[in-house]
Amino acid sequence: MLKHRVIPALLLKNAGLVKTLQFKNPKYVGDPINAIRIFNDKEVDELMVLDITASKEQREPNYALIEQFAGECFMPLAYGGGIKTVAQAQQLFSLGVEKVCIQSAALDNPRLVTELAEQFGSQSIIVSLDIKRNWLGKAQLYNATTGKTLAGVWQTQLQALVAAGAGEVLLNAVDKDGTLSGSDLELIRQAREHLEVPLVAVGGISSLSDIKAAVDAGASAVAAGAFFVFHGPHRAVLITYPKYHELENLFKANT
Questions:
Q1: Torsion from C-alpha of 66, 16, 122, 57, nearest 10 degrees
Q2: What percent of the chain has pLDDT over 70?
Q3: From the candidates 45, 51, 130, 177, which is the catalytic residue?
Q4: 167-190: pLDDT as tens digits
Q5: Gap between the Cα atoms of 131 and 144, Å rounded
Q6: pTM score over 0.85
Q7: Label partner for 158 (CA 20 to 30 A): which of 102, 128, 139, 226?
Q8: Is 216 a catalytic residue?
């Protein structure tokens, strides 16, 4: 097993696989079941599926579809989107999901993180934070459901949610999403200073060297979307994933 996980992050909208650019303009890139089968063949260690409209539409996860995903996955599956209660999480785990990722509900009610951790264990609970920089470059917590930044210090919120029981943090750099321009390394460094749980960095990954840079900055694992679904200057849809030995060699310097 690799020292650092490299996780395809698949975005779901209306049961289709999409990819966004800075959280906007979702582009249909294919059927999620087909994508999962391809990632199976490529022996991916872990997969993350995020329904980007469930919370915005005030609906529950699409359990029937997620059950299909879990049935197809040869690897551990994490799911996020529309989770607001312990009962919903319970249903997802019963379908074969191994981790649940929550954001909106955690920001509204941090106590939910504690209840989930007590019921299922912290290792199964990911808290996702979206961070967007303002015109001065200041990093701020962003609520994708409302499309607005939130008041307060994001590092404080991060610490509070981990203290509440989150076993892992998904740190999403909104300005880097889909840009293939490299990670926000400073953001990763700042988050790492405040964390004692695994940090999964997502946003901007375009190459193996970007993955290495994110890990060197403090990420425990790296997730990516565009890097695994787009190919070439015209962003043609082609699902790819690095060879195991490429990733193994990449992280040797970190061992």
A1: -100
A2: 99
A3: 130
A4: 999 999 999 999 999 999 999 999
A5: 10
A6: yes
A7: 226
A8: no
